[in-house]
């Protein structure tokens, strides 16, 4: 989760309408709730139908109240990706809708509109009268997934890595990494007042170190297939869990790397969500199409990880009723690879 370590990332915004008839063109608002340090509220209003035979429309908005925040006046490039579950409870039926939305400066709200028609049949004035006399419980269950451009701290400190300088905010780094917390603030490393720091480690790729730092600010840097393994190595070394999670999400959602590479990353760096994703989405056709890549990656796994993967590949082959087990194909390919090296 970018820029949000330690926050409460889930919450509920709730609004009760005692009688639908009370709703008019003027909106009703819920109390504002802070979720992931951002102010959210519900807005509900009713508008007339398209014609006299149509029921009125209930418009429900969940709003990220950016105009109330000082940072919004300084930046128009912020965004917040969240999963929202709309729930409307009434006497007749409950309505539920789940979706993901990217709230941003240009559109800090999302709208769900439905007809105030109590049934699926033809609209009638009597039915609508009974419905408007009933109450509504409206809530939005919000889970914030990523925040970009919100409250980004200034980079007032410097780290020299093998002679190359990087501007950082030591408080942000310390919040995300026990390593940097000790590096910046424990007496045996540095005094708190110091703003210039030095790391001399010839094993560290300076360019990758900079990319790793930029991934803390997701509007500045993102992992890709060319650098994700090196970034994960550095995240392990410097205990940057927030960047490791970004790499894991990239490997699940955006990477074009072969199956066994992703599985190896999951095993090597303790990426449990990625491991579950790999084992639950084995595609035999794709696996065989990239067999040489998968064999090369399989050879890099330790013996225990190879056994676990063999077991799951065998299960997939059994369920698919394949003529030859994927695990057997992999073992034969690995043996041929080993013989070719001799």
Automatic annotation (TrEMBL):
SUPFAM superfamilies: POZ domain. Gene3D superfamilies: Apoptosis, Tumor Necrosis Factor Receptor Associated Protein 2, Chain A, Potassium Channel Kv1.1, Chain A. Transmembrane segments: none annotated. Residues 155-225 form the BTB domain. InterPro entries: BTB/POZ_dom, MATH/TRAF_dom, SKP1/BTB/POZ_sf, TRAF-like. PROSITE patterns: BTB. It holds the Pfam family BTB. It comes from the Eukaryota. This is BTB domain-containing protein. It comes from Meloidogyne hapla (Root-knot nematode worm).
């Amino acid at each position: 989760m970018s820029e949000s370590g330690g926050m409460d990332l889930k919450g509920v915004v709730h609004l009760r309408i005692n009688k639908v008839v009370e709703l008019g063109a003027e909106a009703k608002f819920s109390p504002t709730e802070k979720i992931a340090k951002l102010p959210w509220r519900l807005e509900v209003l009713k508008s007339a139908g398209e014609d006299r035979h149509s029921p009125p429309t209930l418009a429900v908005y969940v709003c990220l109240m950016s105009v109330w925040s000082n940072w919004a006046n300084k930046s128009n490039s912020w965004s917040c990706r969240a999963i929202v579950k709309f729930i409307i409870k009434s006497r007749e039926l409950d309505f539920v809708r789940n979706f993901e939305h990217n709230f941003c400066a240009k559109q800090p709200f999302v709208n769900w509109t439905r007809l105030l028609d109590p049934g699926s049949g033809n609209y009638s004035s009597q039915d609508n009268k009974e419905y408007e006399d009933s109450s509504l419980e409206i809530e939005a269950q919000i889970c914030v997934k990523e925040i970009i451009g919100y409250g980004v701290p200034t980079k007032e400190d410097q780290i020299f890595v093998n002679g190359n300088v990087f501007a950082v905010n030591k408080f942000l780094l310390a919040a995300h990494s026990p390593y940097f917390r000790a590096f910046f603030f424990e007496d045996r490393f540095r005094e708190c007042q110091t703003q210039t720091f030095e790391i001399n480690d010839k094993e560290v790729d300076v360019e990758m170190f900079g990319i790793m730092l930029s991934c803390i600010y997701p509007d500045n840097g993102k992992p890709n297939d060319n650098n994700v393994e090196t970034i994960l190595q550095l995240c392990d070394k410097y205990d940057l869990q927030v960047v490791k999670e970004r790499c894991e999400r990239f490997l699940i959602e955006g990477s074009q790397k072969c199956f066994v590479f992703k599985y190896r990353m999951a095993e090597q760096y303790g990426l449990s969500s990625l491991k579950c994703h790999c084992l639950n989405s084995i595609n035999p056709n794709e696996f065989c199409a990239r067999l040489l890549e998968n064999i090369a990656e399989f050879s890099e796994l330790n013996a225990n990880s190879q056994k676990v993967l063999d077991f799951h590949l065998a299960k997939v082959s059994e369920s698919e009723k394949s003529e030859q087990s994927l695990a057997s194909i992999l073992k034969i390919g690995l043996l041929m690879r080993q013989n070719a090296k001799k």
